[in-house]
Amino acid sequence: MLHKITFHIILIFIILSIISKCFAQSKVYTNKDIENLKQSTIKIAPPKKTETPKQYNKIKNLPIEKKEIKSSEPFVKYDRLNGKMNLTVVGAPKKVIKQANDEEFIYSLRIKEFILPYSNWNDEYEEYFDVHYGDPDLTLSDPSIIAIRSLKSSGFDNVFELYKRGTLYDEGDDGLMYNHLSSHFVIDSNGAIFQTMPLNRKTKGAFGVEHKAITIELTGLTYKDFDTNSVQKKALLSLLEVLIKKFKIDASNIYSVLEISQGKTIVKEYLDLGDSEYPDRYSPKKSNFGPSADYMKEIRKNLVKGN
User: Is the CB of residue 202 less than 8 Å from the CB of residue 143?
Assistant: First the structure.
């Protein structure tokens, strides 16, 4: 009996010794210990270097794609879909132009865009073109004439405000009416070219040919202003060179509104169904102003010579 008790006591002592050794070897970790352990075991990768497309292509031995601008008219782009012509191609060839005093300067075609709120005038324009040309469609799809005129204005700002505000003019059988004139381009006295209407949209102001014409407004107050302004004249020639090439318009079909006012005797395409008294020419009551016949002869001569 004694031996059994002794054996059990010894066994308990051995078990307690083993348990105490285990606890002695164990460690209670605090939250701080755990966080330090994580930081010591996690390896943080260095930030990844972002490569530029050029560096990436170089690493991969890939050639860098180069986009080349291809155009038969290298100094201007024309978007036929929306009628815009205001983009100058990078690397455009420049023209050396001599003024009257033989001073040379560099001139390149740059067109600024100031588009009129023409969509607000749809009803007005559709009625007008239906009455005068028998067709309310406002799309200028195949222009064959270029008409040049002036509203006797001192600068582009005056022209643009007059276009937006509207004015009274002779509507033939309907008499004086308040409506909005417009043109595709305005060339200021300093040679700046502004596009104010899309080229695929009909304009109003070159009566009798608006159904066929691209229209250009020149700023100026007198005939002498046009004749003596070589900068504006050179800008006009540069613009005309592009237009006749783009739309395959013959230089002989470029007219001043003074020539257009003579009607069918000068312009065969002249048409006005809205004036029963003067269907083939301008009414004497209708005012018009633009470059002189001599000015236009010089313009057409230079265009033919240049092409």
Answer: no
pLDDT < 50 regions, the chain: 23-29, 41-78, 80, 86-94, 96-107
Q: Does residue 33 fall inside a structural domain?
A: no
Task: Give the integer Cα–Cα distance in Å for 120 and 139.
Answer: 15
Secondary structure E strands in the chain:
77-79, 84-87, 95-98, 104-107, 111-113, 145-149, 167-170, 176-179, 185-187, 193-195, 213-218, 254-256
- 3-class secondary-structure state, position 60: coil
Q: Is 125 among the domain residues?
A: yes
**Domain count of the chain?**
1
Q: What is the mean pLDDT of the chain?
A: 77
Instruction: Indicate the SS3 state at residue 105.
Output: strand
Q: Which residue range(s) make up the domain with 171?
A: 110-306
d(C-alpha 252, C-alpha 137), whole Å: 27
Whether pTM exceeds 0.70: no
pLDDT value at position 282?
A: 93
In eight-state DSSP terms, residue 201 is: B
Contacts of residue 304, Cβ cutoff 8 Å, sequence gap at least 6: 251
d(C-alpha 64, C-alpha 252), whole Å: 48
- Alpha carbon of residue 62 to chain centroid: 34
What b/e string do you get for 45-73 counting C-beta neighbours within 10 Å, with b at 16 or more? eeeeeeeeeeeeeeeeeeeeeeeeeeeee
